Amino acid sequence: MDFSLFFVYLAACGAAAATGALFPTGPWYVALKKPSWTPPNWVFPVAWTSLYLLMAAAAARASTFDGAAVGLALWSVQIAFNTLWTPVFFGLKRMRAALVPMAGLWLSVTATCIAFFALDVWAGLMFVPYVVWVTIASALNIEIVRLNPDQARGIPTP
């Protein structure tokens, strides 16, 4: 693996991760009704750190193969959706609207995983945990909208 490429992709992941610092969860999120299967808060930074390292490694590995252009383009699309979701959900507090970038994220992550598998089994395998995590995050976003219908429509709670 070319470590200079790894660090370029990791920098893109860092930019996406920065939205978490810019738009923290805060009391608004704590007060929302969430499903019983919501992961504990400590899981999120551990999961995202691991996923960002795997995403960067997968892209750096895939980029060394002929025909990687489509996979890397999809990687770029997924990191854009990844970056967009947090400001919509936590910044704007528009959890229903956040389903749009979440759908784009799930589709682009899944497509990237498939494209990486076509290039290299290891690059594809490194994306599988991300597909699983984004599937869980999508379900969590949907359930939070369902459990908080007034806030999902933008009606302030007392």
List the keywords.
158 residues; mainly alpha; Ferritin; 7 helices; elongated
Overall tally of structural domains: 1
**Termini separation:** 54 Å
User: How much strand?
Assistant: under 5%
**Secondary-structure element string:** HHHHHHH
Largest sheet: none
Structural class: mainly alpha
Which word captures the global form? elongated
The number of strands is: 0
* The CATH architecture: Up-down Bundle
* CATH level 3 topology: Ferritin
Helical content band: over 70%
Task: Estimate the mean pLDDT confidence.
Answer: 93
Q: What's the alpha carbon Rg, rounded to whole Å?
A: 16 Å
Structure commentary:
By secondary structure, the protein is mainly α. The protein has a single domain (3-23, 45-152), classed as Ferritin. The protein has seven helices and no strands. Helix 1 (3-22) runs parallel beside helix 4 (69-91). The longest helix has 27 residues, at 121-147.
In short:
The protein is an all-alpha fold.
